[in-house]
What we know:
Layout: H1 8-12, H2 18-28, H3 38-50, E1 54-57, E2 63-67, E3 78-83, E4 105-108, E5 111-114, H4 121-135, E6 144-149, H5 157-161, E7 171-174, E8 182-187, E9 189-198, E10 209-215, E11 220-221, H6 233-246, E12 251-257, E13 267-268, E14 272-278, H7 284-301, E15 310-315, H8 326-338, E16 342-346, E17 362-373, E18 377-386, H9 389-405, E19 409-416, H10 427-434, E20 438-442, H11 447-457, E21 463-466, E22 471-472, E23 480-482, H12 483-499
Parallel strand pairs: 3-6, 3-7, 7-21, 8-20
Antiparallel strand pairs: 1-2, 2-6, 4-5, 5-23, 9-18, 9-19, 10-14, 10-15, 11-13, 12-14, 16-17, 17-18, 22-23
Amino acid sequence: MGGTGESNRELVKDLAPSAFFRFFAEIADIPRASGNCGAMGDYLVAFAEARNLGHVRDAAGNVIVRAKARGTASTSGVILQAHQDMVANKIPGSGHDFARDPIRFVREGDWLRADGTTLGADNGAGLAAILAILDAADLVHPPLEALFTVDEETAMTGALAVRAHQLRGETLINLDSEDYGVALVSSAAGATHSLRLPVLRAGGAEGPLGRVVIGGLKGGHSGTEIARGRANAFVLMARFLADAAARGVGFGLCAFDGGPVPVADNAIPSRAEAVLMFDTERRAEPLGRLASEWETVFRNEYRVADSGIRVSVAAGGGPAPAPIRAKSRDRLLAAIRLMPFGVVRFARDGEAEKKPYRDLLVETSNNLGSARLETDAAILRTLTRGSVRSRLEETTGRIETLAKLVGGALRKENHFPGWETAHPRGRVQRLFADKGWKLVGVHAGLECGVLVEELRRAGRTLDAISVGPDIAGGHTPEERLRIGSVEPFWRDLVATLAEL
């Protein structure tokens, strides 16, 4: 095993293709969590300037780098696209600072992962591939536009800011896929919502404090892994606390959030914490016994999909704000328990009845990505995805109804369009299919949908596909890149560019 004692560059210096891994290591040194892409943008601009490549950086922070055709007279341009940002997630207890610290690689056999954090292969692998192509002097390719967008992981704000006149290409190769040999040719639409539920605090309340932690969950990407049946830590916490209240455990709820683990709308929450205030010292004892009981229940319910769930209660947890009143507490817990979570509906088509469960494509889903208790309100954030507009709207309508019933207000904060399968297949899709790639749809949202829709509104058709090497455990500290998948992915990519 290669550890963190070696530099990233030393750890990957013998890996092929060498240019890909060299740039992948350089990117890992640059802090680029969503919302903090400034340094990454500076790097891309400097890269272009050092090679005399045309480039522009727009007001959103997107960077476009242009390269002339090489070895071909083709004038039909290709857009190579990846996003600059990464999900910032780490294991509990990690001291990593995503605003300052580089990602540290660990090599385990055929896999590359990070030391206690997300690796950033999503979408660092795409960034590295594009930079290696632009840097190469011997690759045949048509005119290229490298589009590096910002903040894909939070709200796709970079892609949503792109306008058709900024792009000249007729073909889009998005490099944000995570399964070598499986190319994405459609994606779901989605919308993020913020539910604000007013709460009242019980001023002057005093009592011993305790902290409840639910952890050990796998989490994962709320698009690609929502069908795996994994637990949502906030939902489990709401169930546990609601049962405690129903059994007469006297407690006030002072704080409720994801603890030190960063949360994101598009990640299934893997940890939840609550700070409680008890009316007597002895209240923590029955709660501890209840925690053991519910841990057994949760592990049984998720014994296949999420078997490592832990429920713990510890004394202390202060200082803490005054607890919210019982009615506010109960409305918050009810809202979380009633919130749609997971798969709402699988896609149904003529082949669906013949497919095994694991191969069904999710049509509609909802993820409660974060829940936090502020001074005068609880904030619940959701990401709803769907490939059928009417069912997507029905699911968001259910959340709107829930918000009204519990006395809250729902606000749509972002929407991204879906990407429908092209009929007949475009040329770039046929070229990858000819190389043995399987063409499929995905329940996750992709920037392809945003860009295809923007050009469609301008009267232009964009032939699009999304490809990439093998990446597992996305959006979690278990994220890893399969080293052996990179070289064949690279070979197919550069061959396709030559053919285009």
